[in-house]
Fold each of these.
Amino acid sequence: MGDIVEDEASFYSNAQDYWKDIPPTVDGMLGGYGSISSIDINGSKAFLQKFLGDGEGKTGSGCALDCGAGIGRITKRLLLPLFKTVDLVDVTQEFLDKAKTYLGDDGKRVGNYFCCGLQDFVPESGRYDVIWIQWVIGHLTDDHLIDFLRRCQKALRPNGLIVIKDNVSYEGVIPDEEDSSVCRDLNIVCSLVSKAGLRIVHQEQQKNFPKELYQRWVMITPAIKCFCITHKRHFLCGTFSGRPPDAAASLSPERFYLTDVFSVRICCFYITEYF
């Protein structure tokens, strides 16, 4: 992304300035498409519930982290109904202040409100069952995204997941000067995921978005990374625009459940495909 983000400091400060001018509402969080919130949440819930449970290899429901949380739209409707505790992190303090009232009584189960850009955020080691990253990776440079994913691995509990739900371009990197972000294509995202020590495994398509919006894609990516550790941990991340890059996409996650190793699985959503 070096040819796109020539001035890293301005890239981040311009994004902060943009979000400071956005109203702290659901419509504001979704760029004027507040009407798709229920469709988005329902698709995310169906996706996430496939991995949650009490059985062997299932992800726990103790604590989740909402990255780029805004006013807590995802926390309120997706994460708090599924987890005992949720932490929120966002770069805009006004959004986090609004979240404290927007979440209502369920806000009592919020553990922490972190006002911080993800490029600087260091999640607590071993705290989270699920780290949810939606519509925010475009606000990170390549190097910062790689580093953040690595830090997220360390923040997972056994069998934990990292879920990325975000936009994908048809080809290359598309800058958005309005909000100071970028939209990467599949190959670029896969490369960044690989550099973070992860590999893609599976994908699904998000259904029922309005026709005027671009196609939305959901994907699960598990990866294997072996360490001398005796428990398994699953890390979900990734993105696809309809075609898996290799045969790994058809493999069952069970293929990766190795004995006495540290097993990392990535899970991810792809959202908008720009042409």
Amino acid sequence: MQRVDAIHRAIQSIYEATLAPEHWPEAIASVALAGGAHKAILHAAASCGPTLAVTSGFSADDVPRLQREIENRLPAWIEAIPTGTPLRQTSVISDADFRMSDLYDAAVRPAGGFYGIVAPLVRGADRRILLTLARNAGAADFTEDDVRATSVIGSHVVTAFKVWRRIAGSEGRASATCEAIARLNVGVVFLDETMRPLLANPCAEALARRAMVSCSKPAGSRPRAPTTRAISPRRSPPPRTSVTPDAGTPIRRRGRRPRGTA
């Protein structure tokens, strides 16, 4: 039951780390514990997107050496391990040959390790994920139970990495969108469901300072009551009336005498 509980905790920690990347070291530490290891390193890289390199049990000086070996000259015996299959290193290379390898001399020996479980979880042109568990020098080799635990956890690591990449990508797109909005020469204000301003771009802030718009004290602001004024109806002038004179009545014009009079 202790092993099962450790595996469950490791899986839970991995998925929690996808939402809070600062917890990746704790997640890898739980993976090491579930796999019966003293140390562990997860290296996940993609041709486009962020690279994830997390360790547990290694010193700050050990990590760069391990990364160089993984990224630049991964041994042929590791490349020969089938994808998605965790294996003890002793099943693919003898102890004597391992001691003579560049990986051991450059990275494993300085880190104080020896036996390991190597799990190439994903291997492709655009993405690679390698999970490695290690025991301190002088400790016994890993057991089959350790390998099985690593196999169970490994599939969840792959899924978690996909989720983490999508989240990281969406955050990048959101950041680019915010930068584009910030560069606009029109004011943009984001409001919540209560019509309170949450975010304003620089142009909107400048307009607010110039009193062209008001974004100050959004929580206490209230819409102005509409001004009501009684407007008296404009009095229309009396309609004009025109009187048509009788046919026999001469029309007098100013300044002129009527014709036919003395």
Amino acid sequence: MSYEIRMILFLGIFIIASLCLFDVLVDYLLVNYRGGILRVMMRLMMDSPFNYWPGQDEEMLQALCEPLS
């Protein structure tokens, strides 16, 4: 088997494995955090990031630290 074919096979397997692991990670985050990750992501992707209010960091940390018990 030539070098190019082996490299293409390796990269294909690597990409598929990476996608599977990313899917498992996303499922884990969605199951174990009640929307906390999604709330933080929405806050970080706001259209106007300059609307900073006191306590914004605390709210983000609280959203990240709310595991399902």
Amino acid sequence: MVASQLLVPLAVLVALGTAMIMDLPCAFKTEIPGFCGLIKKAHKVNVATVFNLNGTHFEGVRQNLTKADEALADVLRMKKKSELLAPLAKALESENCALSELKVICNGTKMESGCRLGRRGLQRSSLTLIKAIKKIVNEKQNNTIIAAEEEFLKGRQNGTNLIQDFARNVLKKTSLWYDRVVFAEFEAVSSYHLRQPICWLLRDSRVVRYPYDMYATTGRVMQNVDEHARKREKP
């Protein structure tokens, strides 16, 4: 009963968000062929992923997907090509954070269907957004992304990690990543002693920690993040 009571409001909210984004016009159908379709495809995948992530333990993942979709809506509202990269990179950043959250939750003993379907959906939407980014960056940036893509395609194991590394390389090459995001490793408290990345967002010179930081070895990680924040605050 509780699960169904939680699921109905979630379904309603997702449906409303879907209708809003899908109804938004896209100003670049002619100027950038295929771009608008990629943005709406990524959103559709996110919607399906959210429906597969039931339960409070997936709340952090859903929050990141909500941020990604908000950024995609901003992309569709833009009128100038030069304005597209910032919100698109923000969407990819949020997808990457969602993958980090999911990896912590699904650490071996919790391989339920939500973990499997969530991972598949996040991988698909991340790759879709990278395709969209390739359509709007300059030639030099596109060449560096292609080089990162070649490295990604050479990989054979752990698709989630490979896609995350690929996405980070894309964000790094477009010069929109290190200014705002630090991916710090932390040790997950589990029988497997997994080491996973966690997202730390630096906003308004304040460090905002994402859920599941209770798993972190906070002394070493916070020292690195605080040092990064202090550097940002210097004039």
